[in-house]
Write a structure and sequence with these properties.
By secondary structure, the protein is mainly β. It has three helices and 37 strands. The chain is about 5% helix and about 40% strand.
Length: about 525
């Protein structure tokens, strides 16, 4: 039975059933994907070569699968113009995701351009051009068989589409340049515009609305934690920067309508890059790997004369041990950064210019190429300034970051705040109130522990344990202790009768649900704590 969902129909004011986005996908629409029927008929079958393009058919030459009499299509050099080979037209619908793929190799070394595969979108008349997809390109002079794959969402106004091969330049006349085989052009996802709209849990980003700041409400070079590179500051978000003290981060209190807070990044060191990164743990990454996804966020700049006025974004996959990630992902900063080992960018947006008004920036129909957790284990979202001419006090604000499965971005999912807190506490928890910055000697966040003293004397140990509010990601988190009666770090206050002392707290147990320890004096201990279990 087909899986069904409900969507709200504003006309009838009722919920009606609809099938999911993966219903009614279309298998390969090409009539002759391997050119065998064309070879047998002696004429093109399902392909429409442009005038002046000569294609031949081989038998077993450079066979990809070892067949003795396999047919291929060859692009040859017979003229000086660029060469195109389109497939026949396919009718498409707005929002559908189509994928084109083919195997190709180069048969010589005199090649001066690569072979491109892409999708062209047209209106009903098949002559009014709407858009082209991004290119999948085979590098020139590579004789290895390589699969070219490109997936795109059908844009608005498009009614027909087709797969096209394009070689923009050639080498010596009469030399076989490109060999193409086993092509496909298929709809891989249904583009029902209401497919994801309103479905809870679609956003893979935690605290994308930037409304939870357990570690503090602002971060500078003088705070703890400070605004250094590769520091978790906003809940679930890592600040990455080309050095330390590059930007200060504060809560933005003028977010777009419907939101509560934003992340405000103010330049402190000129001519440097910076960005915000969130890494999803493997269990949450699995639903995105191998799928078509969309990323969206809202952003603006502080003033019209700010030099820092554009952003880029990308989705990355971690191709190594699950959850054993490198959080400082940037190897070399630049307009298009290079990333450290095991991190691979699955896409990179163009530079998105900002204004002083909030705008929604979307990246639709992103194909996460790895199709298995054996290849990629974690997903990350990175939003960063792509400029290197920033001036001190320039400001960029970001909020409402959303990553979802589907060919297009939907409105931001606003979770109940209590649920957002619980999701964040899986990675970071404190005994202080939600808006209190952890610190010593502020009279806040204290827990009380009392019990018998081991050995029956004042010199023995007093043991205690506490349960966490939320199960933690790991049982190997980092704990810190805050004395609320003095400024002595990593201690709690203990009492023997009415005598208070600062006592070192020793943690002797830590699980995903609780922690326990002991102090060396007295039968009463009190203090505060934090625990961090981030990736």
């Amino acid at each position: 039975m087909a899986e069904m969902f409900l969507k709200y129909d504003s006309v009838s004011r009722k919920f009606i059933a609809r099938s999911n986005v993966f219903e009614n996908i279309t298998p390969n629409t090409l009539q002759d994907p391997s050119f065998e029927r064309t070879a047998a008929a002696g004429a093109w079958y399902g392909w429409e070569p442009k005038a002046g393009v000569e294609w031949l058919f081989g038998t077993g030459v450079n066979s990809r699968d070892g067949a003795a009499n396999k047919s291929y299509a060859y692009i040859t050099d017979t003229n000086t113009a660029a060469q195109y080979l389109p497939a026949t037209w396919q009718r498409v619908n707005y929002g559908d995701v189509w994928q084109a793929s083919a195997w190709a190799c180069c048969s010589g070394t005199s090649i001066i351009s690569g072979l491109h595969a892409y999708i062209d979108w047209y209106r009903e008349d098949k002559t009014t051009f709407v858009a082209s997809s991004r290119l999948a390109t085979h590098p020139k002079e590579s004789t290895a068989w390589t699969q070219l794959t490109v997936a795109e969402m059908c844009p608005a106004d498009a009614v027909f589409a087709r797969l096209i091969f394009w070689c923009e330049a050639k080498g010596a006349p009469g030399v076989h340049i490109w060999i193409v085989d086993d092509c496909s052009f298929e709809k891989i996802q249904n583009g029902d515009p209401a497919a994801n709209l309103g479905l809870p849990g679609r956003n893979g980003i935690i605290n994308g609305c930037m409304r939870l700041w357990q570690r503090g409400s602002s971060f500078t070079a003088a705070t703890v934690p400070d605004n250094g590179d590769d520091h978790y500051l906003i809940d679930r978000w890592i600040l990455l920067s080309d050095g330390n003290d590059i930007v200060d981060i504060t809560q933005g209190t003028a977010p777009p309508r419907g939101s509560y807070r934003s992340a405000s990044l103010q330049v402190e060191t000129a001519n440097k890059q910076f960005g915000l990164l969130q890494i999803l743990e493997a269990r949450d990454s699995a639903r995105f790997i191998g799928n078509i996804v969309s990323l969206s966020f809202k952003a603006k700049m502080g003033a019209s004369d700010d030099n820092t006025h554009s952003l880029k974004a990308c989705i990355l996959t971690w191709r190594s041990t699950a959850d054993a990630v490198t959080s400082d992902i940037v190897d070399v900063w630049g307009a298009t950064p290079t990333f450290v080992a095991n991190w691979t960018s699955e896409n990179m947006s163009g530079s998105k210019p900002l204004t002083t008004s909030w705008q929604t920036i979307t990246m639709d129909s992103i194909k996460i190429v790895p199709t298995s957790l054996s290849v990629a284990t974690n997903i990350a979202v990175f939003i960063f300034c792509d400029q290197t001419n920033g001036v001190v006090d320039d400001v960029i604000e970001i909020t409402d970051v959303q990553l979802e499965v589907g060919p297009y971005a939907t409105p931001f999912e606003h979770r109940p705040f209590a649920l957002e807190v619980e999701l964040c506490q899986r990675y970071y928890e404190k005994s202080f109130n939600i808006d209190t910055t952890p610190a010593v000697n502020i009279g806040a966040g204290e827990l009380f522990a009392s019990g018998p003293v081991d050995g029956g004397g004042f010199g023995g140990n007093m043991y205690f344990s506490f349960f966490f509010k939320t199960r933690k990601r790991t049982s190997t988190g980092t704990m810190k202790y805050y004395n609320q009666k003095s400024t002595t770090v990593d201690t709690w206050s203990t009492y023997s009768a009415t005598v208070r002392a600062d006592s070192a707290l020793t943690k002797d147990s830590l699980t995903e649900v609780s922690w326990g320890g002991y102090v060396q004096r007295g039968s009463l201990a009190l203090g505060a704590f934090t625990i961090e279990c981030e990736l």
